[in-house]
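Hello forum,

I keep getting stuck at the same step: I have a sequence, I want structure tokens, and every attempt I make locally crashes halfway through. Rather than fight my setup again tonight, could one of you with a working pipeline run this one for me? It's a single chain of 297 residues.
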Amino acid sequence: MSSGSLTADRRFAYAQSLKDDGDFAAAAEVMAQALEEAPRWAEGRFALAELLATAGDHSGAIAAYRAYLEIEPVDSMGAGARLALLGDATATSLPDAYVQRLFDQYAPRFDSALVEKLHYKAPELLRAAIVAAAPGRRFARTFDLGCGTGLAGAAVRDLTAWLGGVDLSPAMVRVADEKRIYDVLESGDMLKAVTALPQPCDLMLAADVLVYCGDLAPLFQAVARTCAGLFAFTVQRADSGTFNLGPEQRFNHSRAYILGLAVATGFTVLTLEETVTRQEKGADVPGLLAVLSRAPA
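Reply #2:
Ran it on my machine without issues. Output:
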């Protein structure tokens, strides 16, 4: 991540060395000096904010994150979420540019990292819940929201005649396409993709993707208009309230919030149970698994 200034880059390297030694305050000082040489260096502004936050200088970090956003308002590095965690903003979703950048970088090692290191099991849990809710049923059209590399698609491929998928990350979509699981794949916003579906689907999936959206009301409304069957998904669990952003920059949703959205959008709740779909730093992450039903209009 070059600044375009040799002096700034050298100071950045020195700041990284100080950071590696655990001297975050000194690293922040050197990083600030680097930015004197390259004041419009967005990644450098973000790096300074991260160092200040780690050093405990929250007011300085907030100012640095805001300076970064002035340079890069699309927020591909997720400064808005950091500001929310510092109490300086409210987050109802994560920026598309941030999610795309995150998963474009993650795509080559996604399957192995998720399954082997994080013990991810949302796809098989969703499949089991779908089969339990609709035993023996074969679906005509299934759409996979936030399909990633196709782990959920692979889990339900034999249950459906047609399978489509959408994901913000083009790199993830390319990996999924190589598996030859889907009939149609696209890269883009899932809400827009659901709204644009040419005909209803009788199964819609969202495996571990709603954690990147806080306010789920617009998506529920869109799915309700295009779903003529089951809507199956997982979320991370909040113990109270509606939704909140966790320190790992993933949203948690409460059981009451999901129930309220289901009722408001005309779904019948078939399953809404506590589960664990993954681990984080060796600990189980509390989750919810839902299977909702909506009869054809």
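The two ends are 52 Å apart (CA to CA). If your local run keeps crashing, start a new thread with the error log.
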